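User: Sequence recovery, please. Input:
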């Protein structure tokens, strides 16, 4: 029997509908949720993400204001832009594309985004809020994993979750978010011994490794739910995940595809965070 396919676009559309009605309620009170997107240089990945984001934001009723700096811009120039956006009450969220050019101190710059506007969890203090269950925004990709589970009514309480990967953008936050939902969580990484048997015993597998189709069916077991966060490209330019999809699909009970899986949900999560930030700002006025 083949697995249920956890379709990213279906999740994204449901989130967008909800966000659009919340944005409309805000507009009735004179507030237009707005995201400022800040880019340094002309990386094609950033530009293509910006394009997808613009389409999604339009559907969600979120305004997007783009700020593009030249690759050679100075750190001070970037900080001036961030400071102005931080002070601008009409801007509710700030997204800064990373990595920044080598001549910039990325960590210091990220800390200049006010926490209330840090809708993709750049700042250490935002991550700390996520880890301690306070009111911070989680990194959008980690949040997208949780949104997929929620949309399909998959409870993780009491289940064993294995997260393969421990980056600050995905592995660690998604592990903490699963823990907050009462899963029993293991975080595996490149030094993990006997990864196969650890992944095989999980009820929920989150793959965020960055290695094309590394997790093949020999790592997997019947009944598992697999979230594949990986975005990798084969030599012939095909986009694949960290999980070898066809073998996995034949074995597990539910799986996200790549493309049209986790990655398809992230821009709608970003819009949701912007609307949440606008709602919080409005409630404080
Ligand atoms: P990363 O910072 O490179 O982290 C990769 C993690 O995987 C590290 O913790 C590393 O362990 C671990 N790892 C590497 N090789 C391993 C192995 N053979 N066995 C077990 N663990 C191994 O990557 P990332 O930024 O978290 O991204 C992960 C993937 O998600 C990438 O494919 C990326 O393109 C994708 N991504 C997707 C989205 C989306 O929207 N879907 C967004 C962002 C990123 P160590 O810590 O021991 O080195």
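Assistant: Recovered sequence (285 residues):
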């Amino acid at each position: 029997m083949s697995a249920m396919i956890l379709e990213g676009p279906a999740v994204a559309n449901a989130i967008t509908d909800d966000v659009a009605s919340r944005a409309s309620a805000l507009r009735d009170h004179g507030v237009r949720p707005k995201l400022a997107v800040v880019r340094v240089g002309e990386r094609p990945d950033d530009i293509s993400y910006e394009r997808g984001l613009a389409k999604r934001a339009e559907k969600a009723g979120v305004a997007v204001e783009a700020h593009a700096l030249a690759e050679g811009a100075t750190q001070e120039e970037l900080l001036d832009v961030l400071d102005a956006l931080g002070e601008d009450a009409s801007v509710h969220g700030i997204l800064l594309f990373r990595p920044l050019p080598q001549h910039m101190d990325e960590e210091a710059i990220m800390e200049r985004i006010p926490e209330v506007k840090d809708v993709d969890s750049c700042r250490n203090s935002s991550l700390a809020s996520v880890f301690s269950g306070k009111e911070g925004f989680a990194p959008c990709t980690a949040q997208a994993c949780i949104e997929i589970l929620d949309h399909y009514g998959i409870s993780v309480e009491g289940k064993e979750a294995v997260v393969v990967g421990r980056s600050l953008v995905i592995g660690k936050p998604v592990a903490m978010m699963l823990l907050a939902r009462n899963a029993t969580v293991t975080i595996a990484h490149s030094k993990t011994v006997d990864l196969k048997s650890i992944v095989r015993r999980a009820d929920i597998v989150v793959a965020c490794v960055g290695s094309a189709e590394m997790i093949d069916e020999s790592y997997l077991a019947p009944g598992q739910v697999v979230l594949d966060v990986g975005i990798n490209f084969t030599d012939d330019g095909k986009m694949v995940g960290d999980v070898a999809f066809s073998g996995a699909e034949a074995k597990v009970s539910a799986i996200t595809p790549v493309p049209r899986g986790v990655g398809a949900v992230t821009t709608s999560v970003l819009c949701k965070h912007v609307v949440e930030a606008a709602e919080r700002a409005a409630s404080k006025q």
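The pocket of NAP is lined by residues 141, 164-167, 169-171, 188-192, 195, 208-211, 229-232, 262-263, 266 (CB under 6 Å).
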